[in-house]
Amino acid sequence: MTSKTASGERANPNMLTAAHRSLPFGTVVTVINLDNGRQVKVRINDRGPFARSRVIDVTRQAANELGFTGKGTARVKVVGPHGNTLRAGKHC
Fold first, then answer.
1. What is the pLDDT, as a whole number, of residue 92?
2. What is the pLDDT of residues 17-72, one digit of tens each?
3. Per-domain residue ranges for the chain?
4. RlpA-like protein double-psi beta-barrel domain: from which residue to which, for each copy (predicted)?
């Protein structure tokens, strides 16, 4: 059985999606890895992260593209759809 996200979608680690505490579902943000400069656009489809020190949770595919798979977390900046920095910090 496939789990579902808070938005009702099937969870798919191969998609470029993410969990955020307050952004509306469907919002597309850019996540930038502050250690290597790699960036990826993800669509918000879930709620989280639940660790208060983290700003966003991304799928395995997004983590691969950001270059931190296997490390668990990375220092990132989240940029909103209008180019505004939403928050920088740790990400899972």
1. 53
2. 999 999 999 999 999 999 999 999 999 999 998 888 889 999 999 999 999 877 78
3. 17-91
4. 4-78
8 A C-beta contact, residue 62 and residue 31: yes
What is d(CA 23, CA 61) in angstroms, rounded to the nearest whole number? 20
Q: Which residues in 17-51 are b (16+ Cβ under 10 Å) and which e?
A: bbbbeebebebebbbbbeeeebebebbbbbbebee
Cα-Cα-Cα-Cα dihedral sign, residues 18, 20, 26, 30:
negative
Q: Which two tokens stand for residue 6?
A: 């808070």
pTM of the model: 0.89
Amino acid in the structure at residue 39: Q
Q: Tell me if the bond preceding 24 is cis, omega within 30° of 0.
A: no
- How far is the C-alpha of 16 from the C-alpha of 8, rounded, in Å? 16
